[in-house]
Amino acid sequence: MEVADYSVEAVAGALPDREVRVYPALLSTESDALAWARAGAAEGSVVLADYQASPRGRAGLEWTVVPGVTAAFSLILRPRLSSEKEGWLYTVATCGLADALGSGTTIEWPDEVRRHGRRVAALGVHAELGPQGVAWAVVNVIVLRPERSRIGLVAEIVESIERRCAGAPEAVLEDYLGRLETIDRHVRARLIPMGPGGPQVIGRAVGSLMDGALVLYTDRGNRVAVRPQNLGLLEGAAQPSGEPSSD
User: Fold this and answer.
1) Is residue 242 part of a domain?
2) What is the number of alpha carbons within 13 Å of residue 169 lying toward its C-beta?
3) pLDDT digit string, tens, across residues 138-164
């Protein structure tokens, strides 16, 4: 069965000159894209599905895909990054996602795009590491309720993410920080593996780095970098009285 806005003609027109797999329903586009990437899929290949039974975001967070409404897909990348910088993919991908969704959007580290304080889109990144660094990566994207044609939006997001991946890192980070609403908030980063007594870092968010890490200034006066691939959950935390200045 063919879905109207994901028809052969619509996909070919919106995503020309790239390999695209389109399904009416799938367990998840991520699982298909991971297998395809391992088998040698070209950079820029896309997996689309109108419905996903078990879509997942960063750290396995559950997503819900509404058929005919939600735009959700996976993009295969083959970036030239060292293993230490795999988290940078979160920075470029969320920046590209925010670009495509237009003015008024902000970023919640490490994986959400918001408008007027409400989540409108999110993503997750699976990076496969090899002896030379990141061998390939799959970026999973969900836009909850697109305000325009899904296939047109998917094409714009794909192009925006690829453009940010190819851009000068300094310029990308500057734009990213300008949209990052997490800055200056007091947060608790619960790290993987999560659970009672699990590792966590509490502090005020003061910056982000070229490896995608969020820098937290703790109440002990230390700066701790939390990488997105190590994060289980980011949540608000009470600010301790008499917190020392980070200046």
Assistant:
1) no
2) 12
3) 999 999 999 899 999 999 999 999 999
